[in-house]
Write a structure and sequence with these properties.
Structural class: alpha/beta
Order of helices and strands: HHHEEEEHHEHEHEHHHHHHHEHEHHEE
CATH architecture of the largest domain: 3-Layer(aba) Sandwich
Shape: globular
Strand order of the largest sheet: 1-2-3-5-4-6-7-8-9
Number of domains: 3
Helix content: 25-40%
GO biological process, one term: lipid catabolic process
Distance between the termini: 41 Å
Mean pLDDT: 81
Signal peptide: 1-29
GO molecular function, one term: triacylglycerol lipase activity
CATH superfamily of the largest domain: Alpha/Beta hydrolase fold, catalytic domain
Largest sheet: 9 strands, mixed
CATH topology of the largest domain: Rossmann fold
Region (Disordered): 463-514
Strand content: 5-15%
Pfam family, one: LIP
Low-confidence stretches: 1-47, 54-77, 474-510
């Protein structure tokens, strides 16, 4: 089936929006938001919305239902249909970006195994380098667009790092995307509709033998960069060898994209990287741990610690001394859980119940020798050489916004052209305030990236106008793209919204691409 390019763009945009909205609804339903009355104490998020607290309490009350047969049913689903993943060894010789093997795949958006976009999808295994300097196999999927590219130069390649999928092999985006089960379908569809090609990495350990090294800065950054290299090495006639490359990611994927952007000058200087988007970035794991502890995404603490133990096995004796039997049980559970399982089983878990001395896991992460490993994951110490769009939500209840503000100011102070966009979505419900900006940043970020790719003028944000870590978040004059207040506004160049603000000044004028 072939669609007229304009119709394809229009339909794709609608379905991309629907895909993220549906994902948010599914995640909320999975956690058991059933309207049970009686909110518990405020989650710690800076919000004053009674409805948020009511939903928070309802979800906490229902989270205990996530056990038994429900978990067993989810855990028994096996989407692997062949040995494409299981035949890969833990380590492999090769050059980063080298293609090991490939096979046809499918891009399903909403309907399993049905591709209405006329997209050529190819599953690949490729070589990357882990944080220990060893070459390892990683998997991903390449999507070639059937829509015309109307910009300047060769068709771009958008390399997407996925947001949190979980830690089990069945969570791999390469496995779930053909079934229409992955929320990365939204940016994939949006980019394909613009005539971009897309490369979606599974990141290290999702689908393959090693433990997924969740939020490992180097592993994620390298896997993202090498996914772009491998895509170009496919020698596909529809993927120009000189394609301008942009990275993309939100949440965990935002951390991977940000890491790739700052690692590229030394790790992949051969790659024609021109720009990138990093949204909802967990730039500081210590801060993120505080944000998720006792909240709906508490299971991510298990992903993080299991990933750290795999990358740094020397930490295991220290953690064994700190964890009680329940703590070890939770680590064992989360090793193979996907996100929906963790939402059902781990939501609102208080990590103080998992340690022998009653300290929280975030406190333990601050003690040596664990603290040194955590500091290695901090993003912002290096400098990207390309313009970057950084986006976040002011009321994000999973990844505190101060991380994005700090990263944006740090990179800006190093001379990086940064366009910082903070969306003040009203507090709605646990996790929703983290998920909604993923959708509302979508079009503004892609339009901004396309300006950079085309060599057109693009706006940036002066360093002094990026909010401080503790800047107030309730000023009604601070309106950004995607916010409810600014949804109907358009800047002079057609990008939805603007950074015009009485609180923080206005965004810089257009900057000409070097």
């Amino acid at each position: 089936m072939t669609l007229h390019s304009r119709s394809y763009h229009r339909i794709s945009a609608r379905l991309s929006t629907a895909a993220v909205a549906a994902t948010t609804s599914v995640l909320l339903a999975a956690t058991g938001m059933t309207g049970v009355a009686g909110a518990e104490e405020n989650s710690g998020v800076n919000n004053s919305n009674p409805a948020y607290d009511t939903v928070d309490g309802s979800m906490r009350g229902a989270s205990d239902l996530g056990s038994g047969e429900t978990i067993g049913a989810i855990g028994s689903v096996n989407l692997q249909e062949d040995d494409f993943y299981t035949s890969l060894p833990r380590f492999i010789d090769g050059k980063p970006g080298q293609v090991l093997k490939s096979q046809p795949s499918n891009f399903a958006l909403g309907i399993p195994k049905i591709d209405w976009t006329n997209t050529e999808a190819t599953r690949i295994a490729y070589v990357s380098t882990n944080s220990q300097g060893k070459t390892v196999p990683v998997t991903g999927t390449v999507f070639t667009s059937s829509a015309p590219w109307k910009g300047k130069g060769p068709r771009p390649l958008l390399t997407i790092a996925p947001g949190t999928q979980g830690a089990g092999d069945a969570c791999s985006p390469g496995i779930t995307t053909p079934y229409g089960l992955d929320y990365e379908g939204a940016p994939i569809a949006a980019a394909l509709a613009r005539g971009w090609n897309v490369a979606l990495t599974d990141l290290m350990g999702l689908g393959t033998k090693p433990q997924h090294t969740y939020m490992n800065r180097e592993d994620q950054g390298h896997a993202t960069l090498d996914m772009a290299r491998a895509t170009l090495n496919l020698k596909n006639k529809n993927i120009p060898a000189n394609s301008p490359v942009a990275t993309w990611g939100y949440s965990q994927g935002g951390g991977a994209s940000a890491s790739a952007l700052e690692l590229q000058p030394t790790y992949a200087p051969d790659l024609n990287l021109v720009t990138g988007y990093a949204g909802g970035v967990p730039a500081d794991l210590a801060v993120t741990a505080e944000g998720v502890d006792g909240m709906v995404l508490a299971g991510a603490m298990g992903y993080t610690i299991n990933g750290m133990l795999y990358a740094y096995p020397e930490l295991r004796p220290e953690l064994d001394k700190q964890l009680n039997d329940k703590g070890r049980e939770v680590l064992n559970q989360t090793k193979d859980e996907c996100i929906v399982q963790s939402l059902l089983r781990q939501s609102f878990r208080d990590s103080r119940e998992l340690t022998k001395d009653g300290r929280s896991l975030s406190e333990i992460l601050k003690s040596e020798p664990i603290a040194s490993a955590v500091r290695k994951q901090e993003i912002g110490h290096l400098k990207p050489k390309v313009p970057v769009y950084i986006g976040h939500g002011t009321h994000d209840d999973v990844i505190p916004v101060r991380q994005a503000r700090h990263l944006a100011r740090t990179w800006c102070s190093k001379g990086v052209p940064v366009y910082y966009q903070e969306q003040r979505i009203p507090s709605v419900a646990p996790l929703v305030n983290h998920m909604v900006p993923m959708l509302s940043h979508l079009t503004p970020a892609m339009e901004w990236l396309e300006k950079v790719i085309n060599g057109a003028d693009y706006p940036t944000t002066p360093c002094g106008e990026i909010p401080a870590d503790n800047a107030p978040d309730g000023n009604a004059d601070f309106i950004t793209p995607g916010s409810v207040e600014g949804a109907g506004q358009t800047s002079s160049d057609g990008v939805p919204g603007s950074l015009e603000s009485k609180a923080y000044g206005s965004s810089a004028g257009p900057v000409t691409k070097r």
